[in-house]
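<purpose> Linking amino acid order to shape
<body> The protein record starts here
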Amino acid sequence: MHCHPIAADAFRYEDTCHVYVLRHGREAVLIDFGSGDVLDHLGEIGVYRVTDVLVTHHHRDQVQGLARAAEAGIRIWVPPVERELIDAVDEHWRTRAFDNDYDVRQDRYSLLRQVPVTGTVAEYRTARYGAFDVRTLPLPGHTVGSVGYLVELDGSRLAFTGDLIHGEGRVWSLAATQWAYSGFHENAGMEGVAATVLSCAQLLDLEPDVLHPSHGAAVSDPPAAVARLRTHLQELLDSRRRTPWNPDRLLQEPWTQVTPHLLRNVTSMANSYALLSDSGSALLFDFGYDLTTGLPGGHDRSSRRPLLASIDALRRHHGVDRVEVALPTHYHDDHVAGFNLLREVHGTQVWSPDHIADILTAPTSHDLPCLWYDPVPVDRVLPARTTLTWHEYEIGVHHLPGHTLYAAAYSFVADGRRVIATGDQQNTKWSPETGEPEVLNYQYRNRFRIDDFVRSAELYRSLAPEMMISGHWPPLVVTNAYLDMLLAQGTRLAELHRAVLPRGVDFGAEGFGARITPYRSAARPGGTVRMSVEVRNPFPRPEQAVLSLVAPPGWSAEPPVVKTEIGAGQAADVEFVVRIPAGATPVVRERVAVETTVGGMAFGQQAEALVSVR
């Protein structure tokens, strides 16, 4: 017999990886698929139809025959983070960089050709697949996006763990756990090793009776196997660190107390903060990469994974029974990556300041760095310069341009102390003893404006906070000397920009006179795309702007030319419609630009937008 029994109505088929068969009558659910040869042997155990395949990770030995499952009409479910390495892997192969390549992940150990999938598995939750209730466990380690599956069968709790652990306390591959080239993070080059230790510990909390890996024998004593593996991985990890690593603290005590009702998550990138209500609810300021062991190399979707490990600690240690609201200080991925998962698993609502909301809900419309891959729905849009009431708290909402134009500060009182949350605006490391100047964290492509840090210093002065909490640094006790220093730094920063940039032509710190929205769009042959062009008058007097869209050959733009009067130093919005010919060939990221003349001075093609024809 090719299918070996491992429990009542559960079997292991040994292939390029172990394929597990969960049988119910004449039907079955498979965990992983290998070469697909398992389909030829299911009749031996009375199975004649497979309803679903659950994939633990994207590696080719797990899924190389997956096209056969798709052809047979079997539903295919894959890890959320790794979907594009399965159903869009052709694009990954097309765009994956190879020259000067420092991305050491095993993302190339993927399918040679993409296979359509039914959907993604629901992490942290139990769902019905075929006749079985299956809980999906995030198990990063062997890959960034790996998952495992927990199934109760005949009184036993079985965990199907992919390649997280091999045999009685080993791993199938150490090379797979190296997610990034050696660098500056303490765990650099060992991100997956650290993640393996954390995943094994969280797996044991669920008390599985047996672990069934993708390679090797079943693990009959999970605590002993994990203890053996952890001992060796801990030594391996510590050999590359300046200080010993403490995984227990990360798992058991991810939150440190700022005040009794304000907590800081010390395991996340960037910082997230929990404001606790006496009602048992929590409100989060930001929630990015929880329980991080360091960022993997690359920038594709499979390199970035949100987790929710710290939320259980809020429940265990701080009396929180629901995480009601998440507020973003700004739109960057390390501050909002976990928002959608919070919503899906815990029902958390996202409340966003009005100037950030559109970036979250329609990220592809904007030409900005650090965008999250997916739209983040916003449940409540907050007007600027307003105060929202959340349980016993009054929270002020303030625009905070500087680090990015699309940032906000939140002011509130926690345990009698006036607090302001400022995201990544400045590094909050200053002290009068050292005299070390504050780093004003501006990035031009984030749409920094010359006077932004003057305005933020003036805002702080008007709010008079006693404590500042920020995105990547510890909380800071605010003094008058600190506020004076911020104003002086912001003023000098503005003076230096004005001393260096042209006097007669002022496009501001960004240096561009036009922007096109949406930046990325898609249309069918014969379709249209509406584009809005924001154009700036860089002169200290009213001037006329003359704009025309530069479209690909055969495409057209209406109107052909637009003339508009713009006040001194002001901006105006102009609308165009781009028409794509009916016979247009499908193309990815075709370019459209805007030819810009203001006050008779030609500035050329000042902005571009990308249109894909599908």
Notes: The longest strand covers residues 601-613. The chain is about 20% helix and 30% strand. The chain has a mean pLDDT of 95. The two ends are 48 Å apart (CA to CA).
